[in-house]
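Worked example 2:
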Amino acid sequence: MDNIEKVKENMPVEEEVFELAELFKMLSDPTRVKILYTILDNEMSVGDITEIVGSTQSAVSHQLRVLKQARLVKYRKVGKSVIYSVSDEHVATILSMGMEHISE
């Protein structure tokens, strides 16, 4: 088997390539990255996230909706409040590896 065939064999299927590209699109917005860093080790309400990120509540709510759809954040309700956190350890790994890459 030549090198081209090996590369083709290891290539992800189209759907996986598309989903990976979509994941990276989610990280292309500075506000979304700030939100992810804000809730990386902390569960927070929209109000707290808004204060830290320095954006409007409607903008933060919109970005949280986008991040939820991408399965990067999760939420739980506490009374009338909604508390957000990152969905799993993969989010922290992605951010950490990206930061490591740009710091080299």
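Residues 68 and 83 are 12 Å apart (CA to CA). The chain is about 65% helix and 15% strand.
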